[in-house]
Structures are given as C-alpha cells and as structure tokens.
Amino acid sequence: MTNLTYAELGWTRHFATRADAETLHPLRVSHVHRNGVTAHSPEGPQRLDTPDTLPQLAVGDWVTAENGAVTALLDRETLLKRRAPGEDAREQVIAANVTTMAITSSCNADFNIRRLERYLVLAAETGCLPLILLTKADQCNDPEAYVKEAEALSPMVTALAIDATDPLEIKRLHPWCRAGDTLALVGSSGVGKTTIRNALTDDQAATQGIREDDAHGRHTTTSRAMLRTHAGGWLIDTPGMRALRLFDATEGIETIFADIEDLTHACRFRDCAHDTEPGCAVRAAVETGALTADRLARWQKLKAEDIRNSETLAQARARDKGFGKMVKRAMAEKEGRKGKG
After folding, report:
1. Residues in a beta bridge with 183
2. How much is the pLDDT for 136?
3. Could you tell me the pTM of the whole model?
4. CATH of 257-309, one of 3.40.1160.10, 1.10.260.40, 1.10.40.50, 1.10.357.140
C-alpha cells in the first residue's frame, strides 16, 4: 500500500477539531492481533504492542504510539459494540470510527426483520448511517419487494438489492466507501460479505456458499480487518455474528421505533406497560391497524433485553441473589403453611 495522507486514512473533521495530526502523528488500526495491532500512518504500516492498561482496541481506532507501543487511544467518533457471549457482562468492540454500517442479508430465507432491526438499533445508537445490502438479487423473482420491506423499517434506511458477483452491481456501493469514508460490513455468515469484500478491495479471501436447505451460511471471515477500497475509502469486514446482544442501546431503540415511542406519550398513565391498561395509545394503535402487534412485540422485547444486558456483573449477581432469597423465603412459607395444616 502506497503512503497515504491523514485525510485518506480517514482523519475526519471530528478529529481535526480536537488535535493537529501533523503534531500528534496518530496511526489508524487496521488489524487487531492477540498481543498487538497493525496500524497505518502516512509513513506506512507498523506493528505495535498494546499495554494491558489500554482499553480494548478495535479495527478503525486512532491511536498514538512511541517506541513500538501504543500510548493512547483517541476519542472515537463512532463505536460498534455488543455484549460479549457468556454471562460476564463484558463489552465486545466490533469496529470504530465507521461512517456507514452495511447490514448484509439476502433475498431468501436469511432475510429476517428482527435481526435487521437489531442492527439498525446498533447503527442508530452508534451514529452510523445504516445501509441494508440484500444479496442474491439475481436468484430472486422480486428483489424490490425485499427492498421495500427493509426500507419500511426506518426512514433512515437505504436498501440495495445486488448481485454481489457482478462488478457493475458492486460499483453501486462506491458512494459509501470513497476517500475518507469507512464502510463496515456486518451480518450473518454466508450471505456474500466476503464476495463483496473481494470485489471492493484487492483482497482475495476465500468464499463459501449458503446451505440451500436453510439459507444459513458458513463462516468465512474469522477476524476483523480494515482494507483500502477501489473507491478510495476503507472497508471493515467482520465475522458473521450468530447473535447480536444489544446493551446501552436506549437511544438506538427510541430512534428505530420512534413511531411507538411517540405513541407512548399519549398514554393515560406515565408507567403504562401497554398491555391491558385503560387509555393506552399504543394498544389503541394496534386495534386500529396503525401499528402491528408484531412490531410492538419486537419493540418490547428489545427494550427488556437492553435493560437486562446493560446490567453490570455486580447488578446481575445481586438480582440473582435477591431472586434466590425470594425463592427460599417462598419455599419456607409454603412448608410453614403445610405444617400448620
């Protein structure tokens, strides 16, 4: 890769108003390794050590370095993150300083409204532009029907149905990954992310197809990387995620479900659960057909999940301990009643 300017590396106005790149000499992380990172500056790429005292770094981060080691992480413009798998309430960073999040699905059984809404909430919470990419358009009788259904999820959404194997179709993505822009590919495995990555960059990662019986994919990308695109910007490819566990996503949920959030302000009671309470504007909208019961259920599920997943480990343990005490107390009372009988 030839030497690049800071603007070409993605040094946006967000960073320029906070620091002088020529004085700070920052580097942008392109790969995260087990014991370090690879980062780029106008002088070229460098392999850097990462001290344990630093926060978890993500592909796309801007850092400063000295003597072959990262010294500081610069404030992020955007950060894609999720709650890590397991029960320890850890945050897992996905990518940083992303301009557009390309949510990749396909025009077949992989198309899933619930999953798309989760990614849209993540984009809204982060401040990224959401772009829904629907692959396998050449294998579908009516790809525009999928486009309309995807764009109906939020006024923020642009959706494209493409044949990822067609170079002319791939060029439709260039406006989202021009010089200074960073496009992150997220979504399920096997829907064409690696094919898109290969077409947009000089990288030639191996690809695997979707299983025809259930449209589920096989993992191809196994690590995150930031690659230069033919359009001049950057592409961050991410491994397929089996589960996107949201947390600290209140604002994102409110943005993507703004229609329901607006209705809640017209409910008679401020603490309305939108179930059987009188004067519930949300339930009234369902009854008139202005709001579907499915969309209401998805909103309620995401809000409950966000609250649960946003608990710290200490809070989760305290809740579980409190529940355990309640069960023991209830069992003791039950045995006491039996004894009196």
Report:
1. 100, 235
2. 93
3. 0.81
4. 1.10.40.50
